[in-house]
């Protein structure tokens, strides 16, 4: 984007800790806009439980219409215990599934990054996670989760799902992976089960064919079982991992242990009509409203929005540098404050957001001063 062109961001804060963490993410975006002179136009709408209460639907029409008119959507989280008795299609989570489907993103991006200051938070040994910086590109609209026919046939005591991909579905997500790798360490690992599954054989052949378009990117293939092991043994050997829906669901959760806390994980879904950005965590009703939520996952999600939708790579990096700085200074929300090591200061959601914003202002200020020289 350019400084003069308006960029419409729809904020869907949702339920539980969603509004608390989203507020901090929006503050970071506002700082970026102020320093860069960007015309970010924020709109806010309801989704999830709060939308059920106020408008009778987990995804009101006005919310969907605003989402489809925006340049990017930033979502907090949905869900709450009071809705657990409702049928699945009436619950807050139905709103999330419906908006994901309506926006049509097919590539789910989930970074898994070992923050040096949090090396002791991972259940893995610090020397194992050191240097890990993985970007998962998970195919999101195909595979077993959507394939037909599917059924639990109680009469015959049997059930079946269908794993089906077309070459076009594989090629488009592979291209996303190669494009992203070209801006990173130029390596793609494609994960499949081609020794057993015909679908994986199509997957492997297609990714290999697409790789011809990207001669500067190294491609390797791993079976999903081997990949699960390598992720824990030598996570730093991976750059971009591209895989199908089910494998990606499992492997990206496995790799989340590298970071050490659910509250640190951002995500984005791209490739559809409008890209959708959301932290990986849920609405965390157990800590909602207490100032205990870690806003860093949401703030890092805002950085992904700048990188993948607004084309503001330097500003995305500035947010990530601010988060790194604040962690190095010893600031921790309660979920990160393991063992109360010396030099650690436990802060609230809001204080953490303020610390990041302060660091971000310094970083943006410095980079502007450098440009002015
Ligand atoms: P959750 O992610 O909300 O919470 C799991 C655990 O992690 C809780 O102990 C929680 O306190 C903690 N946690 C989560 N985010 C945190 C943060 N930012 N800072 C500190 N601690 C954090 O998952 P859950 O408990 O299984 O689900 C709660 C509700 O959220 C349910 O209604 C569920 O359906 C919904 N949910 C929504 C999404 C989403 O909106 N994308 C994702 C997962 C779950």
Outline:
The protein has 12 helices and 14 strands.
Describe this entry's structure for a reader.
This protein is α/β, with parallel strands linked by helices. The chain has twelve helices and 14 strands. Helix content is 42%, strand content 18%. Strands 2-1-3-12-11-4-5-10-8-9 form a ten-stranded mixed β-sheet, sandwiched between helices. Strand 11 and strand 12 (275-277) form a beta hairpin. Helix 1 runs parallel beside helix 12, helix 6 packs across helix 7 (198-211) and helix 8 runs parallel beside helix 9. The structure holds nicotinamide-adenine-dinucleotide (NAD). The site of nicotinamide-adenine-dinucleotide has 22 residues, from helix 4.
Short descriptors:
single chain, alpha/beta, two-stranded antiparallel ribbon, 12 helices, 14 strands, 42% helix, globular, binds nicotinamide-adenine-dinucleotide
- Count of DSSP E strands? 14
The multimeric state of the shown protein is single chain
- Biggest sheet, in brief? 10 strands, mixed
What fraction, in percent, of the residue positions are helical?
Answer: 40-55%
Low-confidence runs (pLDDT<50, min 5 residues)? none
Overall outline: globular
Structure classification: alpha/beta
Order of strands in the sheet with most strands:
2-1-3-12-11-4-5-10-8-9
Figure out the total of helices.
Answer: 12
Q: Which ligands accompany this protein? A: nicotinamide-adenine-dinucleotide
Work out the strand percent.
15-25%
Mean pLDDT: 95
User: N-to-C SSE series?
Assistant: EHEHHEHEHEEEHEHEHEHEEHHEEH
- Cα-to-Cα separation, first versus last residue: 24 Å
Radius of gyration: 21 Å
